[in-house]
Amino acid sequence: MEFSQLQSTTAICPSLFNAATAQDGILSRIRLPAGLISSTQCEALVQVVNQFGNGEIQITNRANLQIRTSHALSLEILQDLQDYGLASSESSTDGLRNIMASPTAGIDPLAKINTIPFVKQWNLYLVKHPELGILSNKFSICFDGGETISVGDRPNDICFKAVEINGEIYFSLHLGIGDRGDSPSAVGRLIHSKQTLEVLTALTEVYRVYTEQKLNQTHSCARPPRSREMIGAWGVENYLQLVEENLGYSLKPLPLCSLPQERSTRFEYKHLGIHAQSQSGLAYIGVAIPLGRLTAIQFQGLGDLARQYGGGALRLTPWQNILITDIAEAQVEQLTREINGLGLSISANHPYAAIAACSGYMGCKAAHTNTQVDAKQVAVYLESCIQLDHPINIHFSGCDKSCAQHHPSDIALVGIQGKEKKCPEAYRVYVGDGNTNFGKELYTEYSAQDIPNLIAQLLKTYQNNRRDHTQTFREFVNQQS
Fold first, then answer.
1. If DSSP codes are grouped into helix, strand and coil, which group holds residue 210?
2. CA proximity to 376, closest of 390, 365, 362, 389
3. In terms of DSSP bridges, do strands 168-175 and 158-165 run parallel, antiparallel, or are they unpaired?
4. Gap between the Cα atoms of 356 and 373, Å rounded
5. Contact, 49 vs 67, CB < 8 A?
């Protein structure tokens, strides 16, 4: 077979058509808008994983799926995945970042608007406009409908956040204008829900023209500029002025002081467990996925359960967990038993529920530690020695890039090159809030092999000395001198 008939494997930020070569195989990323995947699509992907992969499927922090194969996939396999809707029919835009929405979009009783139709319309627009393939593959869009489980604080270039004004639903426009990993910021523009797609089109077109101009000015292999670089060069108001010229009308101003106060992100694991939907008589169950990784058997099993008990689809979350939705309330108990039978938990207080880890040095050259193995050892150890009554977010990062999780954690462990020859793998340990993105430094260097016992001791100290059972770990450590 000619190389041109094989999947490319030279990407830094992988997609399906341009995968990345890692120490543990060829890494392909399956882009699933809003994290939605049907039971039939689960079957198709499992067949590929069983035939060419390592028998494992991973959820990412943008609700994509990742698979690792022993060699590049053939054109025939790529076309099959396209036929099943697991890849865009337009390969040039399939590498753009996944379109984000709350995993409870359309089923959350507190949502102001269902954002799934916006996700689908924008995805269709990308398919019809291959010229957008020149944009940075980090270009990212988010729709937040005001759900309890919010994704509005996730790092994105453009975010539409639902607000209600005088009984009508609008979106407040937020743009990524800060540093890497920062949440998008409100820019004082109000967009009626009916204008959302045309405004997004104009925002993107102005960015596309800027990208084209920059690429024409530099060497053909130059990296496309990020949208935040464009905004940094022009300023927000100049960018929006060009957008308004493209639209042919002015965007409605929105005084930032009139925006509702941002909600706490402490709700981020509330999707785990059993919850009522907005649809009468139906519920959804959030399943905790260990480090976002499932065996092909578990993944297929969840897909089958979604078909048997739910709406025939799974919803992936940015916290690397899974929802099964549209379950008749009378079948919730039986479905919970079936999920447990797959070796999975639905408890938000399970040690695995809130642990995040990057790929570590097995999948990334920048990492100093084997984060996946270390995180698994912590979860197993905690399960054997402590009963959690709050989700504890533990973040393992193989280096200081913080790829697995951009928002603050309760405990952060950042891989470093250890000084001890006998224990070369080590972590810098952080807790709570502090003067770094990771929190307050607790230990400059701590041996990787001793991390499970350290975290267990930290959590036992918290449970034994907290003000009362409502005080969170973060609140407890922040009050310590």
1. helix
2. 362
3. antiparallel
4. 12
5. yes
Which of the given ranges, 89-93, 256-260, 292-296, has the highest pLDDT on average?
A: 292-296
CB-based contact 346:89 (threshold 8 Å): no
Only one residue has tokens 């040039």, namely 92
Which of 37, 27, 97 has the alpha carbon at shortest distance from 316? 37
Characterize the bridge pairing of strands 394-397 and 411-417: parallel
- Rounded to two decimals, the pTM is 0.92
Confidence band of 57 (pLDDT split at 50, 70, 90): very high
Bridge partner list, 428: 414
Contact call for residues 38 and 46 (beta carbons, < 8 A): no
Contact 188, 253 (CB under 8 A): yes
Q: How many CA atoms lie within 13 A of 35 on its CB side?
A: 28
Model confidence pLDDT, tens digit, residues 328-342: 999 999 999 999 999
pLDDT number for residue 32: 97
Answer for the pair 415, 401: CB distance below 8 angstroms, yes or no: no
Provide the token pair at 345: 């938990």
What secondary structure does DSSP assign to 408-477, as a single string? --SEEEEEEE-S-SSS-EEEEEEEEEEEETTEEEEEEEEEGGGHHHHHHHHHHHHHHHSSSTT--HHHHH
pLDDT, one tens digit per residue, over 71-108 is: 899 999 999 999 999 998 888 899 999 999 999 999 99
Other Cβ atoms within 10 Å of 24 Cβ, number: 14
- Find the length of the chain: 481
Among the listed residues 335, 337, 326, 339, the one whose alpha carbon sits nearest the alpha carbon of residue 294: 339
In the sheet that 25-30 helps form, which strands lie side by side, from edge to edge? 20-22, 25-30, 65-69, 53-59, 293-295
| Interval 364-420: pLDDT, tens | 888 999 999 999 999 999 999 999 999 999 999 999 998 888 888 999 999 998 887
d(CA 227, CA 243): 13
